[in-house]
Amino acid sequence: MPRFDERAELAPRDIVARAIDHEMKRLGIDCVYLDISHKSRAFIKSHFPTIYQRCLEFDIDITTQPIPVVPAAHYTCGGVMVDIEGRTDIENLYAVGEVACSGLHGANRMASNSLLECLVFSRAAAKNIANEIKPFKALPMLERWDESQVTDSDEDIVVAHNWDELRRFMWDYVGIVRTNKRLERALHRAELLKSEINEYYGNYKVSPDLLELRNLVVVADLIIRSALARKESRGLHFTLDYPATNDEFLAPTILDPKQSDKSPAKLASI
To answer: Where do the domains of the chain lie, and which CATH numbers do they carry?
Structure first.
């Protein structure tokens, strides 16, 4: 790590993740290793009890063995725009936590800050709901769902395959290190998936997996178009085509899913 940043393993997560990714690609290896065996067994077990026990489940004793490490996508920076009370621009809809874009995080969220954000914004949202939202009137009865025009699917494997394809190309093309070429490939595949899902949605009975897949593709499409619109690198948003930071892009990129069929340049609010 000192070759990549003088702070070594304490560098921001985007730098550490790119360093790991670089070494894995350079050496053609499946992982790198994190070694803490120079510390005493007592120190490791008292400071990292959960990691210690979890690694033992995979026959790895971190007091004597190094830990295999790979970059992982486990959080987001950005999300649904909210105000200081957690309100979105849709009446009575609130968003809290990593799904929200509250303005407290930049392009590289600091570790554990989102936990504190959840507590602060959930309290603010709860107070606003209690003070502002009046009891709802009884909703009218909806007509029964008409299933006469659709059939049970005998090809649910299509949903599973599309889900797997989406996961793979987002990791490969929209992951830690991006290029315009990779992003354009991902955008093309996302558009194909949207077309397949819409056709499937119109002909077969709706399932929770199909609805979630449809939502995932919409989010993926917005992420890809947002990345194409940003002609710079900032925090975890890193592209080889524009490795430097450009203050012309200092403001957030805000996308409207209802405009997702338009070009990335027209979607960016910068």
So the answer is: 8-69 (3.90.700.10), 80-132 (no CATH), 157-267 (1.20.58.100)
